[in-house]
Amino acid sequence: MMKNIKILGLAALAIFAVSCEEERSDNYFNGGETAIQFNNSASNPLAVAPDVTLDFEVKVGISETADVDRTVNISVDPSSTYTDYTLGNVVIPAGSYEGTAILTTNPEMNFSGPETLVLNLDGVEGTYPDGEPIQFTNRTQQLSFSTFAFCPFDDGVTFTGDYVINHLNTNAFGIPTFGAMKAVELRVGANPSIRTFAAPWGGPDLGDFSTITWEMALICDEVVWTDGQDALVGCAATPANIELGSPDAFAGNGSFDGSDDATFIANFTDDSLGDCGPPTQVSIQLVKQ
Predict the structure, then answer these.
(1) What superkingdom does the record give (predicted)?
(2) In this structure, which topology does domain 161-288 adopt according to CATH?
(3) DSSP label at residue 12
(4) What is the rounded distance in angstroms from the CA atom of residue 275 to the CA atom of residue 184?
(5) How far is 183 from 122, CA to CA, in rounded Å?
């Protein structure tokens, strides 16, 4: 049976808060019109998995309550490129300032890259208590999503918190890229698959360099290092800086087990542009503390 997983965490903005009185003259914004808006962040990551459906909440706020349920009409903007989803209606319950629709992404075995989904608010169905059609002002014109590949981890598995980096090999300078047995904190990045940690390039072996936030994505058993990450360190003979880039085809991506976040492997290319010498393939093992 196909699994369905609900992902929370789309950041909600402040919800309308106005008087609960039912007098139109006191409770309608913008010269007597009802105000509606998306109560999510304007731009959101949207996960797509190969073998499960994933649910997201789309929230809409309204500036006044009513004694009946109301439906808010949403349409898909023509600029959208993502199509493999279902979207329910937004119904604002009686007495409430907010309603929620469920956006479900369907399984996608061969993720080909980010696509966009843009939603528009088109209006509110129904009438005012005096029988007149609801006039509305749209406070947020659009809600945007960008898809990314994601395989949900098992319950209790987060790949966050304190880890120690064990370098399985050294870079072209003969040193561990981030320093020997470097302690770091893994945090969630811009979407649920991304993990970040802060460390200077070169560790303590080559000098006191700037601390950089490094990024990688944990996607369906593979650890994908984000290409072109600037170390803010360079060699005097060239104008470029050292970058940590994607691993070459022979090294391949790192790996992880979605049922156990005790340890995983990340691969990258140290000095991928050859700023200070030949690029070096580096593998690191991150071990949870």
Answers:
(1) Bacteria
(2) Lipocalin (2.40.128)
(3) B
(4) 26
(5) 51
Joined tokens for residue 232? 């803010």
If you average pLDDT over residues 181-204, what whole number do you get?
A: 94
Tokens of 267: 């691969």
pLDDT in tens, 59-70: 999 888 888 888
Q: What is the pLDDT of residue 270?
A: 97
Which phi and psi (to 5°) does residue 27 adopt? -115, 0
Q: How many Å is the maximal CA-CA distance in the chain?
A: 79
pTM score of the predicted model? 0.70
Report in angstroms the alpha-carbon separations of 231 from 211, 214, 240, 242, 244: 8, 9, 10, 6, 7
Looking at every residue in the chain, the average pLDDT score rounds to 85
Bridge partners, residue 225, by sequence: 216
pLDDT at 203: 83
Q: Where does CATH 2.60.40.2030 sit in the chain?
A: 3-149
CB 124 within 8 A of CB 34: yes
Contact in structure between 151 and 86 (CB atoms under 8 Å): no
> Region 86-98: what's the mean pLDDT?
91
* 239 Rama class: left (phi>0) / alpha (psi -120 to 50) / beta: alpha
Give span(s): CATH 2.40.128, the chain.
161-288
CA 147/CA 50 separation, integer angstroms: 13
Give the tokens for residue 75.
């349409």
On the question of pLDDT at 283 being above 60, the answer is: yes
Question: Beta strand 98-105 with 52-62: parallel, antiparallel or unpaired?
Answer: antiparallel
Q: What average pLDDT does this structure show over 117-138? A: 75
pLDDT in tens, 245-260: 999 999 999 999 999 9
